[in-house]
Amino acid sequence: MNITIVGTGYVGLVTGACFAEMGNSVTCVDVDAAKIDRLNNGQIPIFEPGLKPIVASNSREGRLRFTTDLPAAMKEAKVYMIAVGTPPDEDGSADLKHVLAVARTIGQNLESYAVIVDKSTVPVGTADRVRGAIAVELEKRGVKIPFDVVSNPEFLKEGAAVEDFMRPDRIVVGADTPEAADIMRRLYADFTRNHDRIIVMGVRDAEMTKYAANAMLATKISFMNEIAALCDRLDVDAEKVRQGIGSDSRIGYSFIYPGCGYGGSCFPKDVTALVRMAEECDLDPLLLQAVHRRNERQKHVLFEKIVARFGADLSGLTFGVWGLAFKPGTDDLREAPSVVLLHELIGAGARILAYDPEAMEAARSQLPRAWFENGQLQLVLHQYAALEGIDALVLVTEWKPFRHPDFSAVKKMMKQPVIFDGRNQYEPAVMRENGFDYFGIGRRG
Ligand code: UDX
């Protein structure tokens, strides 16, 4: 099938590469000419395992092309996917200007029946607006061309995006006509060969499904973070509680790990957008607001523990930070708890040595320049280099290489043997045996 994908961000690029890998002819379009140039030269703008090789091989074989010219890319496609950004507005709702601009361009250039697919996470009712925007342009042209708008939200996780796309748990298709549903079924047939994972529903149902999935996962995490805060006060081990409740299959083990807060491009933005949607319906989204507020609080939890141990004035102290990305397997710093922590530590006068296996470049370009110029933040080339003479180590992202360090070497390098573990990677008892002053999240220190 001929597919045109507009937007070469996370979702668009992974979707394009994976459809091409399945033998489709894919054109990826983006307004950012520099990005398209880089993609045409085989450079991938994001770190995502497995993506680079399939972009390279499919580009070489001509199944995957990159261009800035949407009208020119519209000659043969049967399916148009809109995967452009929906950044949060000032009030937290998703800004649809890019989505609607793409819809208008499609309306200005459409020549025969096509399915227009919303891939971006967009509020309920967006497909109707996309349909309206296309219809207006067709009317201006005085032509009658049939088309359908489909909602096909993406559930891929950063760091496992290619794998998630190739072997999805489910494919949600919101389609209001049998014709559109049929095209989507054919498009995804190869991804669901062994048993049908396609769930067809109404367009609005699919739009809500994406938000509900992310909000449910965010709720589980915030719930567990609140229980962990209570565990800290009541001398209870949250890790035991996690095991105890996770064993109930109705609850399950996943997404109940307490930590220093969830980040990334989805959970914070989607929970806030859902709150806005509810408020616009004159509802009081009490639970969703609390999920968001608990997470905002949670991003301060490490700093609070540090202040409780060292006092509010951290001048003269050096902290090692392990992990900057919002989670392992990515170089993404969006909404990362590490950024909040760095602001707080540096604000309190501390000096930082930080290391992340993938996010160093992102950190260098996105964090305040003054921190580097004033020597408040130094990015080091190895995890052990972040330990040299430090007063405490703070683990923020649970990258695998941080899991089993040589604790005696770690202790020797540090000035004081103090560890704040934002992802509960270490056993308090083991840390005590190794002579560390240890602080986890909801763990007995
Ligand atoms: C998420 C959804 O999982 C995915 O389906 C959706 O399409 C996009 O949003 P992603 O943002 O890539 O994916 O990351 P995910 O692996 O879900 O983790 C989100 C955040 O939650 C991370 O900051 C992670 O550290 C945190 N988290 C996760 C916890 O704090 N505790 C947990 O138990 C699980």
TrEMBL record:
Molecular function, one GO term: NAD binding
Binding site for substrate: 155-158, 210, 255-259, 263, 327
Keywords annotated in UniProt: NAD, Oxidoreductase
Entry keyword Manganese: no
Annotated UDP-glucose/GDP-mannose dehydrogenase C-terminal domain residues: 320-428
Active site per the UniProt annotation: 266 (nucleophile)
EC number: 1.1.1.22
Catalytic activity as recorded in UniProt: UDP-alpha-D-glucose + 2 NAD(+) + H2O = UDP-alpha-D-glucuronate + 2 NADH + 3 H(+)
Gene Ontology process terms (BP): polysaccharide biosynthetic process; UDP-glucuronate biosynthetic process
Gene3D superfamilies from the UniProt entry: Cytochrome c1, transmembrane anchor, C-terminal, NAD(P)-binding Rossmann-like Domain
UniProt-annotated binding residues for NAD(+): 30, 35, 86, 121, 158, 269, 334
SMART domains per the UniProt record, alphabetical: UDPG_MGDP_dh_C
Pathway stated in the Swiss-Prot or TrEMBL entry: Nucleotide-sugar biosynthesis; UDP-alpha-D-glucuronate biosynthesis; UDP-alpha-D-glucuronate from UDP-alpha-D-glucose: step 1/1
Top-level taxon: Bacteria
InterPro entries, alphabetized: 6-PGluconate_DH-like_C_sf (IPR008927), NAD(P)-bd_dom_sf (IPR036291), UDP-Glc/GDP-Man (IPR017476), UDP-Glc/GDP-Man_DH_C (IPR014027), UDP-Glc/GDP-Man_DH_C_sf (IPR036220), UDP-Glc/GDP-Man_DH_dimer (IPR014026), UDP-Glc/GDP-Man_DH_N (IPR001732), UDPglc_DH_bac (IPR028357)
PANTHER family reported for this sequence: UDP-GLUCOSE 6-DEHYDROGENASE TUAD
Family to which the UniProt record says this protein belongs: Belongs to the UDP-glucose/GDP-mannose dehydrogenase family.
Name of this protein: UDP-glucose 6-dehydrogenase
